[in-house]
Automatic annotation (TrEMBL):
Species this protein is from: Bosea lathyri
Protein name listed in UniProt: NUDIX hydrolase
InterPro entries reported for this sequence: NUDIX_hydrolase-like_dom_sf (IPR015797)
Amino acid sequence: MTTGVVDGSIVPLHRVDARVEPYDWVFARESEAEIASHWARISAGKPAMFNGRVMLQHHSAIADGVFQGGYFETDYAAFISWRDFGLPGPVVRNGFAMGALRAADGAFLCGQMGEHTANPGKVYFAAGTPDRSDVRDDGSLDLAGSVIRELVEETGLEPHEITVGEGWDAVIAPGRIAFMRPVIMPLPATEARELMLSRMAEQAEPELADIVIVRSLAEAERLDMPPFMLSYLTHIYGQG
């Protein structure tokens, strides 16, 4: 059965097939001056903001629980400018993987972004826009690997300290698709948070300012969370 990629929907998946391919992104090509000016403004005084290469999604389809997406490579500055300029042009999405990290007592563990990042103060699961390190030799995109890599990089956890589940929930929103994968940490939330904070304190330049424990939708709604995160948590808590 074919399912549409519809903004505002959450679609369960058993597989995500993503591939990097050539694509002429007209926005980036025709807006070079505006992108350069915007990047200079938002990155001023934030040396940790790096204009590297990222992968964005330019087409997608869902059939029989399998998501198929085509990605292309672009500058981070172009991506951020496109986002901040209101997503101009044909449909493009930031299609990224997220580990929906949950403690042994059922609480979710989210990161709060540091002031030196592009999203200061925002609260969400560890994640990152796919980049060259996620691209396999055959051109496919390793989104499952990205879940572990981002958790390790941002929280200091080791792969053996977490259990990654199967399947995905695609949270579809304008300009983005968050591919949520369940991840369990076998510690109570308070202990898990303290462990991550201790690891982050050892990092030279931590991306996260804090680890936030979320035990209910009401708690989530009081935080500075992007709408797609609230949609996902509403979906999860609504399942009972």
